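Notebook entry, structure prediction.
Reason for the run: the old model in the group folder had no record of what sequence produced it. Starting over properly, with the input documented here first.
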Amino acid sequence: MGRLSLIERASRILRPKVISILLVLTFWVCATSPQLYAFVTIPPRVRFTGVLLPINEQSRKGLLADLKIIIGKERWTFLLDKMEIVGGVGLNRVILQRLFPPVVHFVGPDDLVRPLKSPKIAGKVLTIEGLLYTGSRTLFVTGVDEGGEAGGN
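New structure, fully documented this time:
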């Protein structure tokens, strides 16, 4: 009987501590999980600048890593000269490293994506902006700005 009373005394002493530890852990998980969830689910808005060429026509290299682009069923090479995160600071290299192997599917509104499939776009400097989902290697295109010829800059 002395043994049971010792266990009962220990449980009475430890119970409030265990409950407080569980409450603190629960509060911490509930408080931080929405922030972590938002960080994981909101893709960065990126802006790529470079030249889009058919996959077999690489007359030059981009200043950064070249991306293999898939638009619909067509494959292109995007000679990437500049990449920036809109509203972000210093994450460019990290984002590019997440794209290994560097293959990206371009999707989005037909009026933005359809011109990117045209042979007329090849060799022109483009700035393509969109939401980059690194997990699925998908860029949801939100804007395309067509510059001049690649040799004209």
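Summary: The chain has a mean pLDDT of 78.
The old model has been moved to the deprecated folder.
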